[in-house]
Design a protein that fits this description.
The protein is of the alpha/beta class. It is about 35% helix and about 15% strand. The protein has a single domain, classed as Arginase, Chain A. The protein has a 9-stranded parallel sheet with strand order 1-3-2-4-9-8-5-6-7, sandwiched between helices. The longest helix is centred in the first third of the chain and has 17 residues. It comes from Pandoraea horticolens.
């Protein structure tokens, strides 16, 4: 896969002394034989799940805009980072696109690398998890995986047609069919963006959820401790970040802006706990919608969240 260098362009500090490398300067074409220990960026260009869920469309353009925002960010050392290209949802063939994404994620995992997938609507989550299921197979019965979702919405709709509102219900059914446990934590849930039926379904599935109104900065030490205890109970983590977990003024360019949301510093700190655990196996980011972004702010926020994942920073 050859990198599209038109989206990976940025500043070059020619003539400066010291370490001046930026992400676009260290990025490589994906090569499975060299990927072990590195990170592989994949794009999932899809609006179909959002369309089916009656949301405002535009997230299909998110992956390349996030790449542009990442390109000029400075890096420490020379991290091993690859771009594995985009998976595009053509027409309305969402399920086919999710299957392709799943195979790509499984291939990256088999190569010993960390897949970091850029969306796209939150239908990305089911595609990403198909890759996890393909790679780990029956091991998920004895090596439980925590599905950690930063999101204002449960996305647990039990509907016959897949959408951006159904991925975690679909994952629960996939795991039930394999007799594997469903460990799902949704952090940043808005009581005003989910029906009573969705809260009841979350309770029935033993979902651990934290309301946005409780995730305040002064409670961060307590929340970090709670998350560390949860991570200690599992073997692997799948991290998925829906940009609408953030306050609308911090992330206006999303499919469904949040009236309250969770502060960026809180989200960053909790993601840091996951990184340091050593259990992160795959990550994705969803619902960035460039159509409604203001001054590229949401893209820069997304890039800030993605950068330590892509560059494999533990600190």
């Amino acid at each position: 896969m050859t990198i599209d260098r038109t989206v990976w362009q940025g500043r070059v500090d020619t003539g400066e002394t010291g370490h001046t490398l930026r992400l676009h300067q260290v990025l490589r074409d994906y090569d499975a034989s060299q990927a072990a220990g590195g990170a592989v960026v994949l794009g999932f260009c899809s609006d179909e799940g959002v369309r089916r869920n009656h949301g405002r469309q535009g997230a299909v353009a998110g992956p390349d805009m996030l790449r542009r925002a990442l390109a000029s960010l400075p890096v420490k050392g020379t991290p091993v980072v690859f771009d594995g290209g985009n998976i595009v949802c053509a027409d309305d063939r969402l399920e086919a696109a999710q299957a392709v994404l799943g195979h790509r994620v499984a291939e990256v995992l088999a190569a010993g690398a960390l897949p970091v997938v850029l969306g796209g609507g939150h239908e990305i989550a089911y595609g990403t998890f198909l890759g996890v299921a393909e790679h780990f197979g029956d091991r998920l019965r004895d090596e439980p995986i925590l599905i950690l979702n930063f999101d204002a919405h449960f996305d647990l709709r039990a509907q016959p047609t897949a959408s951006s509102g159904t991925p975690f219900w679909q994952i629960s059914q996939l795991l039930a069919g394999r007799q594997a446990p469903f460990h799902y934590a949704c952090l940043g849930v808005s009581r005003y963006s989910n029906t009573d039926a969705l809260f009841e379904r979350a309770d029935a599935l033993n979902v651990d959820y934290w309301l946005d109104e409780t995730m305040l900065a002064h409670r961060l030490p307590e929340m970090c401790e709670q998350l560390e205890k949860k991570l200690a109970q599992v073997s692997h983590v799948y991290l998925t970040i829906d940009m609408d977990v953030l306050p609308g003024e911090k992330a206006p360019g999303v499919s469904a802006p949040a009236a309250h949301g969770v502060a960026l510093e809180v989200v960053e700190a909790l993601i840091g706990v996951v990184r340091r655990s050593g259990k992160l196996r795959v990550a994705d980011i969803a619902e960035y919608n460039p159509t409604y972004d203001r001054d590229g702010l949401t893209a820069r926020v997304g890039a800030r969240l993605l950068h330590p994942l892509i560059t494999q920073l533990r600190a």
